Write a sequence for this structure.
């Protein structure tokens, strides 16, 4: 089989883990598979890079660039020594060169006091620039021929949207041309999370973007399957850090997985399913720390089992915006004006609901977009389209996901009854057009409890007869 294997940050969090990953790859190669590896930065490194990049421009005094570089050097060197002891000199100098470039760009940004989206993307791509040579060396140490490629070298061409770039169609042929010829003789290790524009400017694909890198490459080279190796046994009925009795979902459709990731399940990047779905390539989610567990397979099938709800997610860092006023009743174009004004300010709307009286439109947006949203709406307000805008940051959104909800009456009723009985007040509700998702908004303080109540209501902790 031709397989893409993507390893997340925790899976390559230290040298011992890198060795474990190299063994997983070696075993799969011995079984006769052609492999392409996509790797994330070592756990926490991207956060640290974002932190220093911000500090470099925000602080009054010079931030600790040198100690930062030294701590990265130490961590990566140590990992290299454990994962590929015979390659420390050769690969160590590659790491040193990269750390020198990183130091230079951080100093340049500090001296200019300006962090452009372009330089930020370049800086935050260094996590993967440092981890990939080590994993590639770990493979060579095990006798597997391997090269590390950055996203651009692998042919991932993107839109110029820094921090949230999308692969463009011409990537496909480019990736095929760059990656397929390597497969006969080696295992390429591609740095996840990054690509470049047609003009060669480095871009990143959004947080957790290595999942997306893996599916972009998988779709381009016609992989038989894409395996996302992470630190949990698969896609679960809820975030296991939140819900102790969450359970692995053995199979889930692309549509369901998309809804889950879009509504906060961190296990997959929201855009990562799209390339796989387009080419109908199954995506498996597996645990590096428990590799014999079958994990979750994400594919076309929308298996409707007796349990219509598959999983529940919680999204934090959102804000509720209410636009009200009798002026809106029966007046065509109000919604259009509101949404256009928000779009002009790049506000991402995650949920919408409009009362049947039409005197109210409620929106859920990312909390970081609230200022922009309020600015945009105060402009629209001047034209008298509505009476007032109110907002609330103290909220979370919950999504109840399952393809079986389409056409199954009574699901919404069960949600409201379960929450109502436990005195959880629902502030807003919306049903996605796919009908695979009912989402609702509650106060932050009620969030976790509400997820647990719904998890219990739909018996998600019990094993499924598949
Ligand atoms: P990686 O570094 O491997 O990409 P992430 O941290 O991005 O890993 O994603 C895996 C984490 O996602 C898990 O450790 C888990 O805490 C979290 N998570 C949230 N929701 C879910 C869910 N529904 N199923 C599985 N994991 C989830
Ligand atoms: N390293 C990047 C991040 O932390 C991408 C990824 O891990 O998928 O967001
Ligand atoms: Mg991830």
């Amino acid at each position: 089989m031709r397989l893409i294997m993507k390893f997340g940050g925790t899976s390559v969090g230290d040298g011992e883990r890198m060795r474990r990953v190299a063994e997983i790859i070696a075993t799969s190669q011995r079984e006769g598979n052609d492999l392409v590896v996509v790797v994330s930065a070592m756990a926490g490194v991207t956060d640290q890079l974002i932190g220093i990049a911000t500090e470099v421009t925000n602080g009054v005094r010079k931030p600790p660039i040198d100690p930062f570089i030294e701590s990265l050097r130490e961590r990566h060197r140590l990992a290299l020594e454990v994962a590929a002891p015979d390659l420390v000199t050769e690969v160590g100098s590659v790491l040193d060169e990269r750390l020198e470039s990183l130091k230079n760009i951080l100093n340049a940004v500090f001296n200019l006091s300006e962090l452009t989206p372009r330089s930020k993307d370049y800086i935050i791509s260094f996590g993967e620039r440092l981890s990939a040579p080590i994993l590639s060396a770990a493979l060579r140490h095990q006798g597997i021929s391997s090269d590390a490629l950055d996203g651009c070298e692998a042919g991932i061409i993107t839109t110029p949207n820094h921090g949230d770039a999308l692969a463009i169609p011409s990537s496909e042929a480019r990736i095929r041309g760059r990656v397929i010829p390597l497969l006969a003789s080696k295992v390429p290790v591609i740095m996840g999370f990054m690509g470049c524009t047609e003009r060669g400017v480095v871009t990143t694909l959004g947080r957790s973007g290595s999942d997306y890198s893996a599916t972009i490459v998988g779709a381009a080279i016609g992989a038989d399957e894409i395996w996302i190796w992470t630190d949990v046994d698969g896609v679960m009925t809820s975030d296991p850090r939140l819900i102790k009795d969450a359970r692995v979902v053995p199979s889930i459709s692309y549509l369901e997985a998309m809804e889950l990731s879009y509504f906060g399940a961190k296990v997959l990047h929201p855009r990562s399913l799209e390339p796989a779905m387009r080419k109908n390539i199954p995506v498996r989610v597996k645990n590096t720390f428990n590799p014999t567990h079958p994990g979750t397979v994400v594919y076309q099938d929308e298996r409707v089992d007796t349990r219509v709800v598959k999983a529940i997610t919680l999204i934090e860092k959102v804000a509720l915006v209410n636009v009200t006023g009798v002026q809106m009743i029966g007046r065509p174009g109000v919604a259009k004006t509101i949404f256009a004004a928000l779009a002009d300010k790049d506000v991402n709307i995650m949920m919408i609901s409009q009362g049947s009286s039409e005197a109210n439109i409620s929106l859920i947006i990312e909390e970081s977009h609230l200022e922009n949203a309020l600015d945009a709406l105060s402009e629209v307000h001047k034209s008298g389209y509505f009476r007032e805008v109110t907002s609330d940051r103290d909220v979370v959104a919950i999504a109840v996901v399952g393809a079986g909800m389409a056409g199954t009456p009574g699901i919404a009723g069960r949600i409201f009854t379960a929450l109502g009985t436990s005195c959880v007040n629902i502030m807003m509700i919306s049903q996605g057009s796919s009908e695979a998702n009912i989402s609702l908004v509650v106060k932050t303080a009620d969030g976790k409890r509400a997820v647990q109540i719904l998890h219990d209501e739909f018996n998600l902790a019990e094993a499924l007869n598949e």
About this structure: The pocket of adenosine-5'-diphosphate (ligand 1) is lined by residues 8-11, 40, 208, 230-232, 235-236, 238-241, 260, 265-267, 311 (CB under 6 Å). The chain has a mean pLDDT of 93.
